[in-house]
Amino acid sequence: MNNELAFVFPGQGSQALGMLADLAEKHDIVTATFAEASEILGYDLWDLVQNDSERLNQTDKTQPALLTASVALWRLWEELGGDQPAYVAGHSLGEYSALVCAGVIEFKDAVELVKLRGEFMQTAVPAGEGAMAAIIGLADEDVVAVCAKVESGVVSAVNFNSPGQVVIAGHKEPVEQAMANAKEAGAKRALPLPVSVPSHCELMIPAGEKLAVKLDSIAFNEPKITLVQNVSAEAVSDAAIIKKNLVAQLSQPVLWTQSVQLLSSLGVVKTIECGPGKVLSGLNKRIVKGIGAASIGDLAGLEAAL
């Protein structure tokens, strides 16, 4: 085990049509992992991620697709003899990938869980009523303040992604009002995000209640690799607390900045992003100056990281 290494797992927004295609050509374990997920889901997940961008971006399809991509990469990393990390953490949905790779839950249970999580989130807020936006160039506390200034409806800071990059979510009009407030307060940019669900705000409490019922039916083990959960930015090993945090995570902020700062304080000097894209690698380098950040979502990245 490499005590200076953490594996980090991306969440929604990192999916891309054709992801992992170059790796699948060389390594059968990629398509085998997708075939396993397809059997549980009842549709061909590999075909979807290679050919159907519209369905790939529907949250109940995005979530199993990203989980499966991350688990396939983890299995491939292990097959090729890559270093075992001392820590794992996942951004939002990515926490479920971390749970599988740390041995907390079975892959088949995770596929079913994230499919339902996506459905619960989608039905919690009617289409078109929710929104999310990225606020660039304001301090965390200033983003919290511009949301608090909005007098009616729901809007709050929900993803503390890196210093100067915070995502807000809630009802559509309050989010738009908070975006305007942010620009007045000196934000460089306030960008609406192309999402169908306002994640990690109080509008997701009903989804969390449904998720809690499902989580109770699944066996959780103690993590074999130290797990940092992003709702608390703490290392957690107790199964009951892990479940409680997964429920809370749906309607409470993702503390990614604080989670990466914790990893650094525990001695981590390198993160490997185990999933498609390089979103977390970019954030991690902004959070901790000088941290090593590699990504293994394509053949070149994987070969460089091994």
From TrEMBL:
- Pfam families in the record, alphabetically? Acyl_transf_1
- According to its UniProt entry, this protein's organism is Marinomonas mediterranea (strain ATCC 700492 / JCM 21426 / NBRC 103028 / MMB-1)
Kindly indicate whether the keyword Cell wall biogenesis/degradation belongs to this entry.
no
Record's keyword terms, sorted: Acyltransferase, Transferase
Query: NCBIfam families this protein is in?
Result: fabD (TIGR00128)
Q: Which Gene3D superfamilies match?
A: Malonyl-CoA ACP transacylase, ACP-binding, Malonyl-Coenzyme A Acyl Carrier Protein, domain 2
Q: Which reaction does it catalyse?
A: holo-[ACP] + malonyl-CoA = malonyl-[ACP] + CoA
Q: What class of enzyme is it?
A: transferase
Gene Ontology molecular function:
[acyl-carrier-protein] S-malonyltransferase activity
Keyword Acetylation appears in the UniProt entry: no
Q: Which EC number(s) does UniProt give?
A: 2.3.1.39
Any idea what this protein is called? Malonyl CoA-acyl carrier protein transacylase
- Name a GO CC annotation attached to this entry: cytosol
Q: Which residues form the active site?
A: S92, H200
Q: What are the Malonyl-CoA:ACP transacylase (MAT) domain coordinates in residue numbering? A: 8-306
Protein family according to the UniProt entry: Belongs to the fabD family.
GO process terms (BP): fatty acid biosynthetic process
Instruction: Return the SUPFAM superfamilies for the record.
Output: FabD/lysophospholipase-like, Probable ACP-binding domain of malonyl-CoA ACP transacylase
